[in-house]
Amino acid sequence: MEQFYWVRRRWRQLISGRGLYSAPASQPTKSSPELHNTERLPGKRRTVVARHGSHQHEYHNISKGYHGNRIRTTKYSLLTFIPMNLFQQFHRTANLYFLFLVMLNWVPVVEAFQKEITMIPLVVVLIVIAIKDALEDYRRYRFDQKINNNIASVYSGKHQTYVDQHWQEVRVGDFVRLSCNEIIPADMLLLYSSDPHGVCYIETANLDGETNLKQREVVRDLPQQCSELTPENFHGRIECENPNNDLSRFRGYVEHPSKVRVGLHNNNLLLRSCTVRNTETVIGIVVYAGHETKAMMNNSGPRYKRSKLERRLNVDVLWSVVLLVIMCLTTAIGHGLWLSNLKEAPFLITDSVSPALAGFYLFWTMIIVLQVLIPISLYVSVEVVKLGQIFFIQNDKDFYNENLDSRIQCRALNITEDLGQIQYLFSDKTGTLTENKMVFRRCTIAGVDLKCNTMNQTSRRLEVYEQEDEAMGRSQTLKSRTSAKSLSCKSLSCNRSSLSLQTLTGYPEEEQEPPSPTLHQQSPFSSPMEKHVAPDRLLVQKLNCLSSPLFLLRDASMELTYIVDFFMALAICNTVVVSSPNQPRHTSIGANSMHPMLPILKSLDEIKMLFQRFGLPRFSALSPPHNTGSPRSFTRKYFTRRKLGSWKGIEDNMVPLNVGDMSRLEISNGEQGSAGEPGADELIYEAESPDEAALVHAARAYGCTLRGRSVEHLLVELPGMGSLAVRLLHILPFDSTRKRMSVVVRHPLTNQVVVYTKGADSVIMDLAESPKSAERSDSMQGHIRKQTQKHLDDYAREGLRTLCIAKKVLEEEEYEVWLKHQVFAETSIENREELLMESALRLETNITLLGATGIVDRLQEEVPETIEALQKAGVKVWVLTGDKQETAINIACACRLLRSTDHLLTANCGSKVDVILLFYITSSPFKFQRGDATDVTSGFAMVVDGCTLDFALQDDLKDNFLELSQHCRAVICCRSTPLQKSQVVRLVRDKLRVMTLAIGDGANDVSMIQVADVGVGISGQEGMQAVMSSDFAISRFKHLRKLLLVHGHWCYSRLANMILYFFYKNVMYVNLLFWYQFFCGFSGNVMTNSWVLIFFNLLFTSAPPLLYGILDKDVSADTLMKLPELYKSGQNSKAYLPSTFWLTMLDALYQSLVCFFIPYFALNGSDADLLSFGSPINASALLIILLHQVIESHSLTWLHAVVLVGSALFYFSFTLVFSMVCVTCSPPSNPLGVDKLQMSEMHFYGVCALTTVLALIPRLLFHALHNTISPSNTLKAAMMDQFNPEDYCKRMQRWNQTQAQTNVKSLITVEHSDIMIPNCDFRLPEELKEFGTPSSPVLS
């Protein structure tokens, strides 16, 4: 596959006119001018020169358009706040609509109210939102000022020294000097580090949440490489890419006056907001400043999505508009007909206006009168309700994680109700379902699965860790299908338990102040359980043979070579940063760092001869060294600053090391090299992933210890040899396409160039080919591959994560040819990633398989219970993982995603024809099923590998894949890439039109989290990338259960009922005004004063819906957790269906008829005036609306009583005071004394009481009949909450039995049978004949 990729890439280059690459004849260095001048790249790039130096005269022309370092995240200033805020608010359609009404009311011929009155609703909404925006912007302003006024040491050309300046004064081209623990003010190119190896360590927690240190390197081949940089002497010109938001990429080069170019990469860039650690002084030149820095370009603010309920709300608002137009047209037509039928027009109507024109004018007048029908305050109320819901979610103590001191984060503010409608859940495995705390358990080397002889010791340690676990919370260990006896014979004895998740940067409790950066800290992936490895005795004895001159058997020597190379690869094939408790992390080497049990070594000559004699035929000799010295002097001489290509000098300075007797190396109880207390020999490994940490700790347990790391060298301690210097030539980092990483080193004993590779077994096993130099090696490699594959399958069945280890020895000529391509790729700006990929693929071929590792990653606590509850709730759970198929199945069984009675469909297809045949075969058994597909086929589960998934996601097979997956209770996609994860989520979301939720914890899950309707990130062991891209962030997978089943159910039901209630009260009150038009000649007049009309929805009835949407509780949290089936009501949108909306409208119509005509008939024939007629109508409408909410509420508290009674008292108080003091407040009518007189008569209260009862009786009868004849599951559950504990338990058991019997009737249990293809009816489809026969079995 790699060869095909390379050929395709070269062919594209050839046909595009770029031509084939022709490397220089001689081996170049990374600063070779011949190499760099081979490419002049077009396109827009950034040129950076020093602000003070030889290029000062052209600095202003070059950097004229570059941003300064001052940041401004505020939207407004004092001068622009009012116009810009109004401009942004009027982007909302509702605000524009009401602005149109205000302007319309200023037209004399259609004026309905006083001009000022119609402005009140819009002004109130605008002021409230403006105050909120102003407070938020002021907080941003204070934060900006704090950041901009930070101090940095910047070089001043005037003073010829570094001076303190504010961050906002820094410019592109400035030289900035930073000390340890200082925050980087801008994106800088690292030009100097006080570290003798030219490295700098930064902490990126402020950027991506990762607390482990990252290593950055000084730009290579600078003139002042060994001394502090002098800005005046820097004459280079920097060419780099334009500002972008890619945190993992930086491309460019430095061009010196001699036209020599030095390539730049991401490890040369110090990013803004990161913190310098463990480095005394660094100096860099600013290349991006202010809003052009990568940190600021990634600062997109909070996430905003449109929820499903909000989309439904917008549709119903449009229906309200249609209803408004119909009512206004009816009134306009009625007014025109009324005028045309009048023989003598009233004096208020001018004769010059025709009935048609008068009807047209009245249409717009009624738009103003009935404006309340369009709920302008509904959108504001929905935002307030969602903020209240988020407040209660964030303050739920069940979401609090004591170990991390963290709680749930709600990053998306407007999709809380979507949590109650999830139908599909897509989950990552590692770190999401599991702890992501890796423990080295087993390994196979040279085809030999190592046996365990220390199970008793490990069991004792397991008991200790389990006791510590119980204090922090129970969790579940993965159950192996292999018996304990077989495990004790086949696996390395390692602790399989783990502590609960620890604080990533925690300090000891007794410390009152944070320790200095050089002191010991709790680093990621370094819990006692993760560090503890109990070595295999037999393997230790074999390693001890390195120091024995009697061990000369040829067969054994080959095995020993494999063992040494295997653990060498575990120790150095990584990017681990090494530190010690009391030393900086890059210099943790000294006399005390040697293993205290190791004797002094004999001589390096004997070790050389040993490896020559024991090694593979391709090993070569190393010329003997000439110097001697102690291990400390060796470390001091070796780890000194040297340029690339100076191996000869290092070889001359290497000291001889003595070989001692390793027979005394015994397996202790953890005092050495395990998870013991901090001591003289303790090392701290800062790893980027838990896998790396577990492998390095495992190598150390066997005596192969990584003790130091610099840019170009590693210090490794081997059993019987002491510390050896390993020259690090290249690191080919891991990526999701290659699924592996490699390091190229010069072997310390053979002086050969060796490539060590580790990666996914599916990739490494394909790349591992037999050497062609020896038949014996060929047959041995074949045997090793066969045995290793067998052991990998065993590991996967036990639920272990597997990695393969391999090596490749390069001839010098082969390495030189590859180096030309690699250097060319590293120094390219355009297409650098593709060129580096090609170079890596070219190197990682014909590798020699050394062995494989098995790492255990246990489940988080309560994961099985959570998945089981979600499945009962009707949520289909898919697991998308990059692990092996067997591992994924084992984990799925352990977390109860798969059941023992499930019929498993495994799809492993090697070609598209296989996939087509798979879908054709599996479609037949389902076509003849009857009944609901979900219930009938609930015993089926499907497992798809990455290759099959790649074919299934093609356009012509998507529908078939979805059809098959819909018949499966669970789907597991293994060996899937991040791109495939997002494609699967998008396919299900768009094609099935269902609500999807994606949950993950790492950067590889970001794409699917962003694609899903709801994205949930877990703040785990792999940084905060997933959290920063998510809508909600939790610390454990178990929290998803309550988040969906309880808060999701509540948020959806509360908000849906509140929206329906809002539409109800608006339609009900507007209809009162509409009915009056039939009695006033459709003149647009109203029977109440305009102030009460405007304030009725704005003030008098606005608070109760907010309380209803925030505090209503139909079922208790405990019941929702125990009965996950109640969640299905939200999935089916039962609370807010189109039918529910129209029934609510009909109810509002009925209540408005009762509310209008009861007072009308009660006052008919009396001398009551217009306002006296409207007073009981308004009062009755208020009581009906408030009591309607009481009927609909599922829970009533004292807060409800206060708000409801307070709203009623507020109305009566306002109208009473208004009628007593207002004389000309509502011309031409005069409300003086009207309401005071009405409220003093018993007739008024009788009419209000009768109207209220008659209006609400149908609603009460409907609820009584419906709840008696066909009660919902939610109502049944709510009734159980009212029983005493004993009755509650009995009814709960009865409920579960009833549900189980219902489910059993609809299940098809397939135990041992396979899907059979009927021979008589089966024919190969026509579309398959053109492809030929399948290449492999497609269904098992």
Automatic annotation (TrEMBL):
Q: What class of enzyme is it?
A: translocase
> Which cofactors are required for activity?
Mg(2+)
Q: Which residues cross the membrane?
A: 94-113, 119-135, 313-338, 358-380, 560-578, 1058-1079, 1091-1111, 1141-1163, 1170-1191, 1197-1223, 1244-1265
Enzyme Commission number(s) from the entry: 7.6.2.1
- Entry-linked SUPFAM superfamilies: Calcium ATPase, transduction domain A, Calcium ATPase, transmembrane domain M, HAD-like, Metal cation-transporting ATPase, ATP-binding domain N
Q: From the UniProt entry, list the residue stretches annotated as the region Disordered.
A: 21-40, 506-530
Active site feature? 428
Q: Which GO terms describe its molecular function?
A: ATP binding; ATP hydrolysis activity; glycosylceramide flippase activity; magnesium ion binding
For the P-type ATPase N-terminal domain, which residue ranges apply?
58-118
Q: Which biological process, per GO, is one annotated for this protein?
A: phospholipid translocation
**Which Pfam families would you find in this protein's record?**
Cation_ATPase, PhoLip_ATPase_C, PhoLip_ATPase_N
Where's it mainly located?
membrane
Q: Give the subcellular location.
A: Endomembrane system; Endoplasmic reticulum membrane; Membrane
This protein's UniProt keywords? ATP-binding, Endoplasmic reticulum, Magnesium, Membrane, Metal-binding, Nucleotide-binding, Translocase, Transmembrane, Transmembrane helix
- Domain named P-type ATPase C-terminal: which ranges? 1027-1271
The record's annotation in InterPro entries points to: ATPase_P-typ_cyto_dom_N (IPR023299), ATPase_P-typ_P_site (IPR018303), ATPase_P-typ_TM_dom_sf (IPR023298), ATPase_P-typ_transduc_dom_A_sf (IPR008250), HAD-like_sf (IPR036412), HAD_sf (IPR023214), P-type_ATPase_IV (IPR006539), P-type_ATPase_N (IPR032631)
Report the family membership: Belongs to the cation transport ATPase (P-type) (TC 3.A.3) family. Type IV subfamily.
Q: What is this protein called?
A: Phospholipid-transporting ATPase
